[in-house]
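Contributing new records

If you add data, match the layout below exactly. Sequence lines come first and carry their own label; structure lines follow with theirs. Keep one chain per record. Anything else will be rejected by the validation script.
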Amino acid sequence: MVLIELLGVHLWNLYSVSECHDVAQMELTNGEYGTRKFCPIGKIFKGVDAVVLDENLMPRATGEEGELYVAGPTLAREYLNLPELTASRFPTIGGVRMYKTGDRARVLPNRDLEILGRCDSMQKIRGYSVRSKQILFDSLLIDCLGRAACY
Protein backbone atom coordinates (compact mmCIF):
# COMPACT_ATOMS: atom_id res chain seq x y z
CA MET A 1 0.00 0.00 0.00
CA VAL A 2 1.36 3.41 -0.94
CA LEU A 3 0.40 6.32 1.30
CA ILE A 4 0.97 9.87 0.17
CA GLU A 5 1.19 12.34 3.01
CA LEU A 6 -0.25 15.72 2.20
CA LEU A 7 -0.14 18.48 4.79
CA GLY A 8 -3.64 19.24 6.06
CA VAL A 9 -5.44 16.81 3.72
CA HIS A 10 -7.91 14.28 5.09
CA LEU A 11 -9.16 11.29 3.10
CA TRP A 12 -12.75 10.15 3.70
CA ASN A 13 -14.75 7.20 2.43
CA LEU A 14 -18.39 8.22 2.06
CA TYR A 15 -21.15 5.75 1.21
CA SER A 16 -24.12 7.36 -0.45
CA VAL A 17 -26.99 6.25 -2.68
CA SER A 18 -29.06 8.61 -4.79
CA GLU A 19 -32.30 7.27 -3.30
CA CYS A 20 -31.28 8.05 0.31
CA HIS A 21 -28.25 10.39 0.11
CA ASP A 22 -25.43 9.99 2.64
CA VAL A 23 -25.51 6.81 4.73
CA ALA A 24 -22.09 6.35 6.40
CA GLN A 25 -18.54 7.67 6.46
CA MET A 26 -15.07 6.80 7.68
CA GLU A 27 -11.85 8.78 7.74
CA LEU A 28 -9.08 6.89 5.94
CA THR A 29 -6.26 9.38 6.42
CA ASN A 30 -4.35 7.23 8.93
CA GLY A 31 -4.83 3.93 7.08
CA GLU A 32 -6.32 2.31 10.19
CA TYR A 33 -8.58 0.07 8.09
CA GLY A 34 -5.72 -2.37 7.61
CA THR A 35 -4.92 -4.51 4.61
CA ARG A 36 -8.36 -6.06 4.04
CA LYS A 37 -9.63 -6.52 0.49
CA PHE A 38 -12.59 -4.20 1.14
CA CYS A 39 -12.38 -0.86 2.86
CA PRO A 40 -15.04 -0.29 5.53
CA ILE A 41 -17.33 2.67 5.01
CA GLY A 42 -17.56 3.40 8.71
CA LYS A 43 -20.34 4.24 11.09
CA ILE A 44 -23.91 4.82 9.96
CA PHE A 45 -25.05 8.44 10.30
CA LYS A 46 -27.52 9.29 13.06
CA GLY A 47 -31.08 9.15 11.78
CA VAL A 48 -30.22 6.66 9.04
CA ASP A 49 -31.38 3.05 9.31
CA ALA A 50 -29.16 0.52 7.57
CA VAL A 51 -29.62 -3.23 7.86
CA VAL A 52 -28.01 -6.22 6.18
CA LEU A 53 -30.61 -8.83 5.26
CA ASP A 54 -30.64 -12.28 3.70
CA GLU A 55 -32.76 -13.28 0.68
CA ASN A 56 -35.74 -13.87 3.04
CA LEU A 57 -35.42 -10.31 4.42
CA MET A 58 -34.12 -11.61 7.76
CA PRO A 59 -31.27 -9.76 9.53
CA ARG A 60 -27.80 -11.25 9.11
CA ALA A 61 -25.56 -11.80 12.14
CA THR A 62 -22.52 -9.59 12.68
CA GLY A 63 -19.86 -10.43 10.09
CA GLU A 64 -22.27 -12.27 7.77
CA GLU A 65 -22.82 -10.96 4.28
CA GLY A 66 -26.20 -10.00 2.83
CA GLU A 67 -27.91 -7.20 0.93
CA LEU A 68 -27.89 -3.68 2.35
CA TYR A 69 -31.21 -1.89 2.89
CA VAL A 70 -31.29 1.76 3.99
CA ALA A 71 -33.86 4.30 5.18
CA GLY A 72 -33.76 7.75 6.65
CA PRO A 73 -35.13 11.28 6.52
CA THR A 74 -33.94 11.81 2.93
CA LEU A 75 -35.35 8.55 1.50
CA ALA A 76 -36.83 9.12 -1.95
CA ARG A 77 -40.57 8.73 -2.40
CA GLU A 78 -40.61 6.90 -5.71
CA TYR A 79 -39.22 6.53 -9.20
CA LEU A 80 -41.32 8.93 -11.25
CA ASN A 81 -43.90 7.08 -13.38
CA LEU A 82 -42.33 3.70 -12.56
CA PRO A 83 -44.64 2.13 -9.94
CA GLU A 84 -43.41 -1.47 -10.45
CA LEU A 85 -39.76 -0.48 -10.02
CA THR A 86 -40.68 1.66 -7.00
CA ALA A 87 -42.50 -1.28 -5.40
CA SER A 88 -39.55 -3.63 -5.95
CA ARG A 89 -36.83 -1.23 -4.75
CA PHE A 90 -38.67 0.37 -1.78
CA PRO A 91 -40.11 -2.51 0.30
CA THR A 92 -41.56 -2.04 3.77
CA ILE A 93 -39.60 -4.16 6.24
CA GLY A 94 -40.67 -4.37 9.87
CA GLY A 95 -42.97 -1.38 9.36
CA VAL A 96 -40.16 0.76 7.89
CA ARG A 97 -40.06 1.77 4.24
CA MET A 98 -36.52 1.08 3.03
CA TYR A 99 -34.43 1.20 -0.12
CA LYS A 100 -32.97 -2.05 -1.49
CA THR A 101 -29.46 -0.89 -2.52
CA GLY A 102 -28.31 -3.94 -4.47
CA ASP A 103 -25.01 -3.79 -2.55
CA ARG A 104 -23.56 -6.80 -0.73
CA ALA A 105 -22.46 -5.75 2.75
CA ARG A 106 -21.72 -6.88 6.27
CA VAL A 107 -21.54 -5.26 9.69
CA LEU A 108 -18.15 -5.68 11.34
CA PRO A 109 -17.72 -6.49 15.07
CA ASN A 110 -16.89 -2.80 15.77
CA ARG A 111 -20.23 -1.88 14.08
CA ASP A 112 -18.56 -0.42 10.97
CA LEU A 113 -20.31 -1.17 7.71
CA GLU A 114 -18.34 -2.79 4.90
CA ILE A 115 -19.48 -2.94 1.26
CA LEU A 116 -18.40 -6.17 -0.49
CA GLY A 117 -19.64 -5.55 -4.03
CA ARG A 118 -22.92 -5.83 -5.89
CA CYS A 119 -25.73 -8.38 -5.74
CA ASP A 120 -26.25 -7.87 -9.47
CA SER A 121 -24.06 -6.95 -12.43
CA MET A 122 -24.50 -3.16 -12.20
CA GLN A 123 -21.39 -1.01 -12.11
CA LYS A 124 -20.90 2.75 -12.01
CA ILE A 125 -18.66 4.21 -14.69
CA ARG A 126 -18.17 7.97 -14.49
CA GLY A 127 -21.49 8.32 -12.73
CA TYR A 128 -23.47 6.20 -15.19
CA SER A 129 -25.11 2.93 -14.16
CA VAL A 130 -23.92 0.16 -16.47
CA ARG A 131 -25.21 -3.41 -16.37
CA SER A 132 -22.38 -5.58 -17.70
CA LYS A 133 -24.62 -8.63 -18.32
CA GLN A 134 -26.91 -6.49 -20.50
CA ILE A 135 -23.92 -5.28 -22.54
CA LEU A 136 -22.76 -8.88 -23.00
CA PHE A 137 -26.25 -10.01 -24.05
CA ASP A 138 -26.62 -7.11 -26.49
CA SER A 139 -23.21 -7.73 -28.05
CA LEU A 140 -23.99 -11.44 -28.48
CA LEU A 141 -27.35 -10.57 -30.02
CA ILE A 142 -25.74 -8.12 -32.46
CA ASP A 143 -23.13 -10.75 -33.37
CA CYS A 144 -25.85 -13.38 -33.99
CA LEU A 145 -27.93 -10.98 -36.07
CA GLY A 146 -24.87 -10.02 -38.07
CA ARG A 147 -24.04 -13.66 -38.78
CA ALA A 148 -27.66 -14.45 -39.72
CA ALA A 149 -27.70 -11.54 -42.17
CA CYS A 150 -24.62 -12.96 -43.91
CA TYR A 151 -26.27 -16.31 -44.69
